[in-house]
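Sanity check. The docking grid for calcium ion depends on where the pocket ends up, so I'm generating a full predicted complex first rather than guessing from homology. Inputs follow.
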Amino acid sequence: MLSRRQRVGLLSACAAVAVTGAAVLTAAVASAAVTRYEVESSPATCDGVIESNHTGYSGSGFCNGDNTAGAAAQFTVTASAAGTATIAVRYANGATANRPADVLVNGAAAQSGAAFNGTGGWTTWATATLTASLNAGSNTIRLSPTTATGLANIDYLDVEVGVSPSPSATASPTMTASPPPGRPAQCTGSSPITCHFAVSPGNYTVTAWIGDRASAGNTSMSVEARRRILPAVTTAAGTITQYVFTINVRQPEGQPTGQGGTGTPGLSVTFAGPAPRLSGLTVQPASNPLVVYLAGDSTVCDQMLAPWTGWGQILPLHVAAGAVVANYSDSGESSGSFLNNSALFPAMRPLIRSNDLVLIQFGHNDKSTTASTFRGNLTTMINQVRARGGTPVLVTPPVRRRFDGNQLDATARHINGVGVNLPAEMRSLGSSLGVPVIDLTAKSEALVESMGPTNSAQLFLRQSVDGVTDNTHFSEYGAGRMADLVVEGIRERNLSLVSYLR
Ligand code: GCU
Ligand code: CA
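Predicted complex below; grid placement will be based on this.
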């Protein structure tokens, strides 16, 4: 509890800030106390039952999750400022085997398959410690088991925010003391707030001051064709956080051939969420960002129309200012059609600059392509990217949801109609040409099979939720999981984007 003198001091500091109109968060706090979040206390949730039959827990119980993949425990934690948090999970696992869980922070995987090893008994409690970047304000931390045994029994989270801000946490959101310039004339509406800038195609530095002097907010940010930039962030009344991103503008803004609509020339920025609050937005040309070009098909592309969502639309959530995703992927394209359509590879190639990354994912539409043609098409792209000074990266195609028992069938794994194992061709071509390979086929196969024939439906489009059933194309959730796997591969291959990941 603060003394009266301290409280008066804080109030006058806030008043001074309000007078200048610049209640901007300046940096992650240097140190903070540990806050405990008990799993049995709302708004925490437990996909199972709160029980108290095994002693040694804290509070009034623990979460005994259902023994199934995806049966999660979720916590809502508050951070006074954005930064790196140390998260200690207290748990008991009386089984002998590890019960791994994905740790999702605000819906994005902060860690895949974190270990919750056996503790020797259900009354023997242990702590697993993780670190993750949190937003200022409210954050969700979800422990989602990846195997059919479900979670260990979960007792609480101890969260310490801002102890050692990581470089990526400070890279974006970027927080400085520049005062919010006020909402520009280019913005209209209140929920959502939509803004439009008449700029030419290119890369732009977009600075957004999110929050409001007078009222609390909960604001997400997206640009252009449903491209996700910032998950919903909470701001208290009087708190305004400055974020900086690099944004790619193309025309058409979605798929390069205009499938699904061509959108509006220029840059559209949308602030949505339960209570969007915006106190400034500026757009300036970006100087020399690291560009990550995406050359792929409908599972990657910027889909204009919901519910279809490509993983390339969610990838920008993971990319900090100074780097930018330019998504040239297009529905229905094969390795050959992408190379030959003037709106696709020929349009993208001359834009590639030294050290830019080009992620190449084909296979879904190479249903009758021979091995030699497939390798030839990919080799042509690789050589032309290298001729521009760029770094090509092969991404094997994500699986389809087609089960044979508990395992995916050959078509799901992209063994095509003429018997070519397309992912295997990409892996062998990568090793012979020295091109890094992100094996998204293997990663997505492991994910889909671990979720199983029923539970994996949520990764794809479902009639009951999306109005259409499609076991090739992803839901927004599934596209997000694919983007997480691509990010995991980017880290494993130590690509130059790693220093810009957020
Ligand atoms: C036992 C134990 C539970 C535990 C469960 C499990 O039933 O009593 O607390 O959650 O095993 O294996 O998940
Ligand atoms: Ca259980």
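Relevant for the grid: The radius of gyration is 24 Å.
Also worth noting: The chain has three domains: 4-162, 183-287, 289-502.
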